[in-house]
Amino acid sequence: MIHYFHRVSLVAPVANVVEALLISLLMFAGAAYLFAYSVIGAWVLRLAPVVNALGRLTVESGKPLIEWRKASFRSPDFGEYWEIVFIVYFAAVLILLIAVNEWNPFRKGDGVEDTRRKMIGRAATAASTVAIIALGWLLTFHPFRHEYERGRLSVTFLDVGQGDSMLISFPQGSLMLLDSGGRAGFESSEGNEDAEEVFVEDRIGVGEAAVAPYLWRRGIKRLDWIAASHGDADHVEGFGEIVRGFEVGAALKGALKRSAQSPGAFDRAALAANAPLRSLKRGEAIDIDGARVDVLAPFTDQSATLAPTSAPKSDNNESMVLRIAFGARRFLLTGDIEKEAEARLVESESDLRADVLKVAHHGSKTSSTTEFLKRVNPQHAVISVAKLSPFGHPHPEALARLRTTNARIWRTSECGAITISTDGVDLRVETFVKCNSDE
After folding, report:
1. pLDDT, tens only, 317-335
2. Which terminus has fewer CB within 10 Å in the chain: N or C?
């Protein structure tokens, strides 16, 4: 459970016994019902509510334990030597089984050989028990700090398919997860009583499948901040899974007018994590470990910047835009802003220069305008996009405009996770999969 699912459950043994009994009863009841129906016929339909009630009891009985946050907790990977730790752990279990068999308190005989075997058995039992407890504690609680390179700011653009997710590691180890990925096109009928219920396939989400494993591999248990660029599902849906597996210090989002209407997925995730939620707008700044995070958007009058042709339900232009500066290097993280918001940033005469640009809206043709790119003038441009994007991202027009900047263009669809780090002077690019950038 720890190795494959990073989960330590305190109630699983009890819950499995209870569920096994209930499922057995349900199988017997269902079989008896079907047999009675084949013999008696429609009269037995009167007993259907009893079988249904037993089925509901089987399903509902485990929910309190599942929803009880203290019933289980998540544990990160032990590290590069995890195989050795597991081998020693199970070797100790094997020694314990053999030792208990050798040290049999009911064994008859007081001869020298019997006494010697008992002494060996007792010593081996004590030693293996201590080893199992110590190694079990080590595997469960993993007391070591997460891996990071002190004195470097790094931004890892995670491969979450058609979506965005970035882990920002600050120079002294503070961590921020900006966006969490999600299913593109996922919609909710929440707040609309007349809307048709949306069918959601019951499958593992992006947060659990892609974001969490990377964090666990880095030995991360706690995120100092989670942040949402905006409310689209492909940016925030994964936070619901993230907050169930990690401690969260605080939550940040753009001061979106639309968010005041009803709590979205990010707000609910922050509430579930008991993390204080702060809304940011243009002009605010946060200093973290010697790096400065400036909020360039949304503007306080952001709604006035939207063009009449903008999609009525899109909040792309209300995305929170962050500029992170450390030493002489800068990162510009743009969310899903489109040409209207880019034009507003250009007109505001903000200093948009950046060494690394997170390309807006996955390389859509409605973003990455020529004037905006001239102002940014990046050395590296990262596109977070799916291998087979359902929207045709990145668009050839956007790529053509990006190439005029002479920036190296990286895609998560080709390179997997892309990490760009700096000590304030240099720039270092590492990719999970060996790949070449577009130049």
Report:
1. 999 999 999 999 999 999 9
2. C
